[in-house]
Amino acid sequence: MQTSKTIDYYFAPQSPWTYLGHSRFAAIAAAAGAAVRVRPIDLGSVFPVSGGLPLGKRAPQRQAYRLVDLARCSRHLGLPLNTKPKFFPVASDDAARVIIAVDMHDGTEAAMRMCAAVFAAVWVQERNIGDPKVLDSLVVECGLSPKRAEQSQSQAVQERYEAYTQEAIDIQVFGAPSYVIDGEIFWGQDRLDFVERALRP
Fold first, then answer.
1. Fewest C-beta atoms under 10 Å: which of 40, 107, 115, 175?
2. Mean per-residue pLDDT, 152-176
3. Which CATH class is domain 6-199?
């Protein structure tokens, strides 16, 4: 039996953890018949409110463990991942806006496809998602209109990006990825088992 639940999917395009969970999350949502609302957010605005720190400002032992855990999760999930990709840290606002533009014009399924392309660009393909030309290419590779990149610079898209970020802050999302079901936050791709349970009738 399928549910009619909705999952608000908060993430940052440069997040390796979002990449590691994305395909599994998409499959879980589809199997449950759940609707996904794609919500790219600006962690640069979320962290000062939530107490989070940019990677470079975290304690050395936390940075070291992150690399170990990324490699561990990559092996466990059978997903390729460069733990130190060429273009990271990377500005991700433009990528977030492209995903929003795709969502607005092409719908959730296309936006989820665009997400997958952006995540893989950073963590598998060594591509710079801060480069407009790379984003243009990713849009076309996803079979979408080249106009999406241009449309992503619209005021409507920017307002939606800001609204999603504020929405995340208001409901106390503090990291990426976060999956929110009926007001309950599930933080991290390692909590997808709980997401799956929450979607059961």
1. 107
2. 98
3. alpha beta
